[in-house]
Amino acid sequence: MGRRNRRIPNLERMQLTDIGNKGKALGRHDERVVFVTGGVPGDVVDVQVTKKRRNYLEGKVIKIHEYSPDRVEPECQYFGICGGCKWQNLDYSKQLEYKEKEVRENLKKIGHVTPEEFQPILGSTQRYFYRNKLEFSFTDNKWLTQEQLDSGQDFPERRGAGFHIPGFWDKVLDIDSCHLQPDPSNAIRNYVRDWAIEKDLPFFHARSQEGWLRTLMIRVASTGEVLVLIQFKCEMEQEREALLADVAAAFPKITTLQYVINEKQNDTIYDQDIITYSGSGYIEEAMPKYSGNGELRFKIGPKSFYQTNPLQAHELYKVALDMADIQKDDVVFDLYTGTGTIALFMAEKAKEVVGIELIPEAILDAKTNAMKNGIENATFYDGDMKNVFTEDFIAKHGKPNVIITDPPRDGMHADVVQSLLDLEIQKIVYVSCNSATQARDLGLLKEKYEVTKSKAVDMFPQTHHIENVVQLVLKA
C-alpha cells in the first residue's frame, strides 16, 4: 500500500528572510526551505503550500501579517497574475542588492572562484518601459482572474491578447496596459484585439490549434522606429488585408508592418517566410560609440537578436570594453556574436575583430551592420562554435589577444571551453545572462586563468534576472 501524500496545512506567520530560487522569497519550516511566491524578505506571512519535496517546499502568500520595510506598491495592475515583473513589490535598491548577492554566491559555490575585484552592480536608470521587443499571444479563451470569478458576473466575451499565465502554456491573460514597452505598444495591441473582436473574427485556440489571429510582435527602437509583425494561423486574405490597412492608417508612425501565415503547431517564426506589407522590412537601433564620437546603427528585423534593453546594453558593452582594455594592434574574437553588436562596438579600438555565431541570418545582419557603419576591420562567420573555433580557423586569422564571449543561458560548450584552455589567450571577457552557468565555465577555466574582475549589470529591472561581466587573465 503506497504512502498517503498528506496535504501540509497552511504555514502561519512565517518570517521571510532572503531571496532564493528564481527570485522567490525564502523562509523555513521544520528544517526545510520554503520558496514563497508573492513575498518580500522581511514580510511575516501565511503560506499555502503548493508543492512539497524531501528537502524543500513551495508555496504562495495568502495573508500578510507584517509588511517588510523593503516592500513597495507594484506599478502594474496585473502584478501577481502575469508571469513577468515579479519583483515590482521589492524596492529597487534591494533588487540590486539581491542580484549582486546571487552573482557572488554562484561564482563562489558553483565555480569555486572569487574574483580579485567585485565591482559594484550597475543599476538601470530606466526601471519601466525599457524593453524594445514584446510578443503577445491572442486567445479565444482568456484567463479569468480570481477577482472576476468571485464577482459573479458573466464574461461572454473570452477573446483577448496578452501574456501566458505562468505554468499554463494554453492560458493567456488579457491585458490593457503593460509597463514594459514604451508607446505605441499598448495602443497597437489593444487596437488589433478590439478591431478583430468588433469584426467577430476567430482568435487562436492553443489546444485545438484552430483560429486565425495568433501572435503579435512589436519592436520599438530607441530611434523611435516601430516594427509590427502579426502572425496568423491560416490565410483569410480579405480580413487580413483589411486589418493591415486599418492598422497602417491608425498608426502612421509604424516604420514597417509585416505578417506571417504560420500553420505549424508552434508559433516560432525562424523557419517561416515573413511578408512585408509596408515599409522596408526592418527598423534601425542606434547606440553611441564608446569614444562618444558619433553612433552605431543596427538593422533589426523580426528575426534579429538585439538586447531587449537598448539603453542599458550600451552600459553593458562599455563595461565589457573597459575590461577588455583593447589596444590598437589587438586581434579580438567575439564568440556568440549574434548580429555583431559587441564586435562592432569594440571595432574602433582593435586592429581586427572576428565574430562567430551559429545562426546564419544573424551573421548576415552582422555583415550588413558592419557595412552600414563603414567598419572594415570586422569579419563574421556562421557555424556551431565548437566546429568553427578550431586550429585551422586560428591559423587563418591569427591568434587573438582578447576573447569576448557572450553565450546563451546554457553557457559555453565544453569543447569551446577546452579550446580556450588550449589556446591560452592572454585575456578573456565573459558576458553572461546566467551567472550559474558562467560560474560553471569559470570553474573549468580557472585551471589556467585568474578571475580578476566581476561586475553585474541590471538589464531587467523588476525581475530576478541579471547580467554579469567577468575578466579573466592568463596565469603567469
- Beta-strand content: 25-35%
**Mean pLDDT metric:** 94
Number of helices: 11
Main sheet specs:
8 strands, mixed
Q: How are the strands of the biggest sheet laid out side by side?
A: 7-22-23-21-20-17-18-19
Structural classification: alpha/beta
Q: Compute the gyration radius: what is it?
A: 24 Å
Percent in helix = 10-25%
- Rough shape? globular
- In total, the number of strands is 23
Question: Could you walk me through the main structural features you see in this protein, from its secondary elements to its overall organization?
Answer:
The protein is an alpha/beta fold and 476 residues long. It contains eleven helices and 23 strands. The chain has helices at 92-109, 146-150, 185-198, 237-250, 310-324, 341-346, 360-372, 385-388, 391-397, 414-423, 435-445, and strands at 11-15, 18-19, 25-29, 32-37, 44-52, 56-66, 117-122, 133-139, 160-164, 172-174, 213-220, 226-232, 256-261, 275-278, 283-288, 295-300, 331-335, 352-357, 378-382, 402-405, 427-432, 449-457, 467-474. Strand 18, helix 7 (360-372) and strand 19 (378-382) form a beta-alpha-beta unit. Helix 1 (92-109) packs parallel to helix 11.
Give the SSE layout.
Blueprint: E1 11-15, E2 18-19, E3 25-29, E4 32-37, E5 44-52, E6 56-66, H1 92-109, E7 117-122, E8 133-139, H2 146-150, E9 160-164, E10 172-174, H3 185-198, E11 213-220, E12 226-232, H4 237-250, E13 256-261, E14 275-278, E15 283-288, E16 295-300, H5 310-324, E17 331-335, H6 341-346, E18 352-357, H7 360-372, E19 378-382, H8 385-388, H9 391-397, E20 402-405, H10 414-423, E21 427-432, H11 435-445, E22 449-457, E23 467-474
Parallel strand pairs: 4-6, 7-22, 12-13, 17-18, 17-20, 18-19, 20-21
Antiparallel strand pairs: 1-5, 2-3, 3-4, 5-6, 8-9, 8-11, 9-10, 11-12, 13-14, 15-16, 21-23, 22-23
